[in-house]
Amino acid sequence: MYSSSPHFSWFNNRLSALRFSLPVKREAHEGDRRRPLSISLEASRMFKWRERVPHLEEVPSFLELPIMLNGLNNRVDFFTEFGSLLGIRGEVIYVEVKPLGSFINEVDRITVITTKGQYYFVLKTFSSWGLLKWFPLWIASYARANFSVNGKSRLKNELRARAILEKVGVRTPQVYCYDMKRMKALYEFVEGENLDEKVKAARRDENMDDIEDVYEKVGLEIAKIHSSGYILGDCKPANVIQSSSRELYYVDLEQARSGNQRLSGWDVCEFLMFTGRFFLLPKKVGILCEAFLRGYLREGDKKVLREAASIKMSQPFMGLVSPIIIQSIRSMMLEYAE
Known about the structure:
Layout: H1 9-12, E1 15-20, H2 41-44, E2 63-67, H3 71-81, H4 83-86, E3 92-99, E4 107-114, E5 117-125, H5 131-140, H6 151-167, E6 175-179, E7 184-188, E8 192-194, H7 195-202, H8 209-227, E9 230-231, E10 240-243, E11 248-250, E12 257-258, H9 261-276, H10 282-296, H11 302-308, H12 311-314, H13 323-337
Antiparallel strand pairs: 1-2, 1-6, 3-4, 4-5, 5-7, 6-7, 8-10, 9-12, 10-11
């Protein structure tokens, strides 16, 4: 899905409040919520439980643990100490951190090498550098999507969204822990290919049945999200990964939040326009867009498609997508909205 950087601050600075999600260890502590996890005597004294039930607009309950991670030795110590929480087996030998994607994305892949194999994680930072990514689009689409550019808000959005999407049966990578103060989170690494790459490959293929089926499923799942009263905000093919087992995972949920018909329309319009930017002629993009719209209408509202087809929704994509493609996609959305 989604780093060896000597400048990466998460491993070189003190984390004052690292929080671990609980599902991994829930079975071991059924009926005994106040029993500390058996990590070490010193560490277990630092655990604090939050006993509230998460609501729609709250970040899920997490376990709080102060800890220091300085240099490579303590990196190894960290994954040795908390390996059982992260599903790591064997003695930790080495921890490698490498950038994943562009610099602006601030995403790193962590490889933990042990005597029993290799384990992969994703470390994501939600700092002010993210303004380079979000601010131009926020300006372009202020009247449509109202993007969050603050790092802490984006991290909260992402943590909250995972819990909501899980309820409607949509897969997201597991969040193992997060540091709200430094705006970082550690995730499960999903091995697979994002839909951007699949669409680029589909341009050269005559048979598009495989990617067509994927697009129909994405349309259905996004409709389920919208029907639950939630939107993704940054809904584009690059943020959907098809795993090696052909399951779909939704990533980069930092703009997800409670939505309405207008914001749901933005999701649909953005997804289809970002698909259309790879094409110069309408034929193949039409196959993908129609598959998405068929899937969407299995549980979605036609009013959302009418909103998505409005001129104001497509305006931010002028210059990114061919005018012929924009008009073709808008016409398809209006046709399916009838």
